[in-house]
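Work Package 3 (structural annotation) set out to generate three-dimensional models for the target panel prioritized at the project kickoff. During this period the team completed the workflow that converts sequence records into discrete structure tokens, so that structures can be stored uniformly alongside our sequence database. As a representative example, we reproduce one entry of 203 residues exactly as it appears in the project archive.
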Amino acid sequence: MAAKLLPTQVSLMAVVLITGCATQTPTQTREDQPQESESARVSQVQDSVESSAPPLTNAGWGEIGVETPFDGDRIQALLPGYQVETGQISREGESYPTLDVYQGETRVAQLDPLDPNRPEAGIQRITITDRTITGPGGVRVGMTWAETPNLDQLDCFPGEGPTTGYLLCTPANAERVQYIYPQLGRDGDRAPAPLERLVWLNW
């Protein structure tokens, strides 16, 4: 014989069922959750790289300066976020060693020795070619002439020899640093092209 439920019991069961339905919420799946765009992730990575990159100043690049020997292992220890590789260039028929600095697949800098036969003599030149590394005042490779910080304080002159066709500028607060701009037009009668590289010189 089926048991009979009293009206009071029926009412209590109905309340329980209704309450349970009211408190149950749909589970949000991974597909339903807002996804970060690929461009946003790339931008975050780029910002992180730029914020961690050592700056180029009158003293040198990060901890690399006038007292630093031209030694790959030493440079690698001072640049833990980069890969340092040995390279070679030719000038006036002679071959010289270089230390090339990479961020992933991108070469960001090149270091040249004061004396190729005496690594302990130090570094003659640091050339920065990537925008993730800032120079004096926040200047970066790729900036236009008008974007260059403290433009009115630059001491500029035309390049000669290997820098013929370029405009070389030195900021007031960093005599060892040069901004290298490709010149446009004849005799510099037009604003130069965007900043091509930053150079630190050991002099």
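Residues 1-30, 38-49 have pLDDT under 50 and may be disordered.
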